[in-house]
Fold this sequence. Notes:
By secondary structure, the protein is of the alpha/beta class. The model is unreliable at 1-12 (pLDDT under 50). 9% of the residues are buried. The two termini are 20 Å apart. The chain has 5 helices and 8 strands; from the N terminus they run E-E-E-H-E-E-H-H-E-H-E-H-E.
Amino acid sequence: MSFRPRATAGLPVLEPGGDRPYDAVFVTPERLDDWLEDVPEGTHRYLVGTGPGSLTDVPVGWLDWSAEVLRHPATPPDHRAVRAADPATPDGTSYGEWGALAHEVAAQLGLRAGDRLLVDAGEHEQPLKWLLAPLSVGASVVIYSNVATERLAAERATHVL
């Protein structure tokens, strides 16, 4: 999702690019009524600042952020170790197979540990090539979109995708 800045009451606000809503929208109770027409659409909409046991009514279509957070434990549950043979994706491709493929793509791109891959996010959709491959060999990734040419030189990239 791309974002473009706009100003509201002197404060910068990010708006989603295109016709897609925000992934999440957070609004305090005192601002909800004031901003009803200005609150952007969001896939997940949360009312914040209510606190546990609040008397604030949560409007239909919104979730109480405090209540949602309390549903999750303070410490994450123990997780089992991931094995190379375990399926990583719904099609059954294992973590080991994805790792081997990522190493192969890194070799094709000539990536090695310490390299710095510069990626135009608007041009490359496949994370295997621009994320998994470099990370699998210890290279770093710089993701950009619509960045001025002089800024790209400052990134000290060893490879460009």
